[in-house]
What does this fold into?
Amino acid sequence: MENGLIDFLEKNSIYIVMFIILVVWLGIFLFMLSTEKHLKAIEKELDVNSSKGKEN
Amino acid sequence: MVWKTILFVLMSFVIIAGITFPIVPQPKVWYEFPIIPGLEEKAKIIFFHVPTAWLSVLAFLMAMIYGIKYLRNKNIDDDLKSSAALQIGMMFTILATITGSIWAKFTWGSFWHWDPRETSIFILLLIYGSLLALRSAVDNEDKRASLSAVYSIIAFLTVPFFIFIMPRIMVGLHPGSMELDPVTGKAVQGTSPVIDFKMNANMRIVFFISLFTFTILYFWMYQLRYKTLIIKDKISKKII
It folds into this structure.
């Protein structure tokens, strides 16, 4: 079974390219998700700080 | 969260379909694309190159809209949103130029030809590049915002002309340009995929999914970018 898949990929190398680009896309996607998470945390912190500043 | 899942799934589909769906003379099953004369196997660039050009138009349009908004309300957040759109638009314009140039090497023979399409995108890069230079040259925040808003409005007026009109009314190599008739020597409507859409229905669907997916990706990138700019602005004001 495994040999069959490897044979198939060796004959049709465009699928290897496809898998590589899918992995790159997954990486970019996860990076953007984590960046967004960080940004939200910073936004929250800034809001908390500014409301504290107003109270004082 | 839902639209991010949609984005991930659709973009994966576009990558799979765009790269691996075979191009054959007579498509028989749904996943086969027809041969477009002059493009052949390289027609697959459509799914990746056209969306980058489309996103640069969209981004510059949004830069103009937020420029107008700023001039109305004088809210600095609108200027930051305009700036974010501008930066992303510039990035996608550069990407469209590079991807087109690589394609040109293998279709036309060299990386750069000064084809009407290439010339017009080069002028666009100059126009928006100078806007970025202008922004970085003015220190006063309000002055920078008003100047940039007015410039982005005027600059966008040239975009439809350079992207949609000029390359189509001039004789050129890019799909969609006019062509010289070999018999009469006059410029005639080109036999190109852009004008009369030689894609079959399935290829067109994948193409529109690709445009849609890249648009979602753009809005996400844009959101991240302007949030960063607004946070940066808030922090710098606190420090001062």
